[in-house]
Amino acid sequence: MRVHHIVPPYLLEHLERTADDPNLRARYRQSLQHDAVFRARPSATQRQDAAPFQDEGPTQGPRRVVHDAEHGTSLPGTVVRAEGDPATTDLTVNQAYDGTGATWAMFQECFGRDSIDGAGLLLSSTVHFDRGYANAFWDGTQMVFGDGDGEIFGDFTRSIDVTGHELTHGVTQYTADLAYEGQSGALNESISDVFGSLAKQHHRGQSAADADWLIGADIFRPGVSGVALRSLKAPGTAYDDPRLGRDPQPAHMSGYVETTADHGGVHINSGIPNHAFYLVAMALGGNAYGDAGRIWYDTLTSGELSETATFIDFAQATLAAAETLFGADSPQVSAVSTAWTEVGVLQSDSSEPSQPSEPSEPERSQPSGSAESVELMRAAKTALSTGTPPRPPPFMPPTPDQPAEPAEPDPATADPDTPANHSHPETSASGSD
Q: 109 an active-site residue?
């Protein structure tokens, strides 16, 4: 079972390398080690250590239970609040309870979905996982929240959008089950960002115009130069901090990052479909969890998406969903078509995908692990415009032990107006998968 973390590994690796305080370095390394262990272990449904909570709560409405790991690492921990129980004196427990409730309410009230599986699945959370754990994750059966390292990250239960994001990984797991690699993995992440943001907007009663469109807006500690982990409104502008680097997300296919790290850049390239949804929601106006949310939800749950869907596949599926829901000549179809065109996934004719350009630099094999993460963060540190949704820069030039050969574009397809050193990402149906 794939474990989904809100903070990508390359960001923690960067912090672990650059932190001056040895105690902080140890916390980041420990967080990474925990994440690696959870990625390798079976899900709770296959573990002997996950005794089921004996739920005797109501059959209608949300069914929630919050456990306390008491700064240990055994899951799920001790039950401290179940459905219908009064608030406790522990703010973190109450925030986890409220965040799962807000996410349930958004899916139920907007899309008629009863919990993650559509059949009233118990929403189980564990708080106070380990000491200084700088992450939160969905492990296939439950949410797990760290308290943060105390320097960069605070309590991960503070952001409803973080809870909504991780629980939506569960919805995807029970529906399209998108493979967590390349473009399908970036779609998996983007769908969680979209519905995580919608959970917060629905809870606050915000319109698309009033929303902040941020993921993780409340988890940074004071002193961090950033507003969140990601921005759907302006990918690439969420943070710019000497310790974190600069947000590397692209908003357009021209900035698509080809990499083997982060499962093919799933937390980076998700900025492209994220921004497409934002554009649809803003074009339609009103509440984003209305027509725009319905189009994305119907696409996710249609049963028509391949597990290895590309951006083009998903874009065309959203067009089909919009046409089914609202009609071929509807403003909803027009908004969806325009949005995917603006982010470079589709051409002006929405029925056709954008044609890939010849890359000026031959594809090179890149190492996985920390070396690749260094290159990702180098890209993140390069100056970006903050005025409009930016196009993050490509990777820095190859290191001496990885020389790049000069480009040899095919004369039959080369564009004479395109400089030889300009990189064009692939936008074919194969994507980066």
A: no
In whole angstroms, what is the distance from residue 399 CA to residue 327 CA? 52
> 137 has which bridge partners?
5, 144
Q: State how far the Cα of 319 lies from the Cα of 327, in Å rounded to an integer.
A: 10
Residues 287-324: pLDDT tens digits? 999 999 999 999 999 999 999 999 999 999 999 999 99
Please name the residue that has the structure tokens 């982990």: 229
pLDDT tens-digit series, residues 380-412: 443 333 333 334 434 333 444 444 444 444 444
The 10s digit of each residue's pLDDT in 227-260 is 999 999 999 999 999 999 999 999 999 999 999 9
Which two tokens mark 169? 């990984």
Determine the Cα angle at 97 with ends 92 and 100, to 5°.
120
Amino acid letter for position 132: G
Tokens 């106006």 correspond to 285
Burial, 400: exposed, middle or buried (Cβ in 10 Å; 0-12, 13-18, 19+)? exposed
**CB contact set of 404 (below 8 Å; sequence gap of 6+):** 361, 362, 364, 397, 398
Selecting among 16, 83, 166, 258, the annotated active-site residue is 166
Amino acid at 270: S
The two structure tokens encoding residue 106:
């958004």
Name the band, by pLDDT with cuts 50, 70 and 90, for residue 422: very low
The token pair that represents 314 in the structure block? 């998903």
Mean pLDDT of the chain: 83
Q: Determine whether 422 is an active site residue.
A: no
Q: What are phi and psi of 136, to 5 degrees?
A: -145, 150
The answer to whether the peptide bond before residue 76 is cis (omega within 30 degrees of 0) is yes
Tell me the pTM: 0.80
* In the block, residue with structure tokens 């239960």: 157
pLDDT tens per residue across span 180-210: 999 999 999 999 999 999 999 999 999 999 9
Contacts of 199 (CB under 8 A, 6+ apart): 102, 103, 106, 160, 161, 163, 164
Q: What torsion do the CA atoms of 90, 91, 97, 102 make, to the nearest 10 degrees?
A: 170
Q: For residue 110, which of 289, 285, 280, 278 has the smallest C-alpha distance?
A: 289
Contact criterion met (CB below 8 Å) for 277 and 284:
no
Cα–Cα nearest to 107, from 186, 170, 189, 179? 170
> Which is the catalytic residue, given 267, 361, 372, 375?
267
Residues 6+ apart with CB under 8 A from 223: none
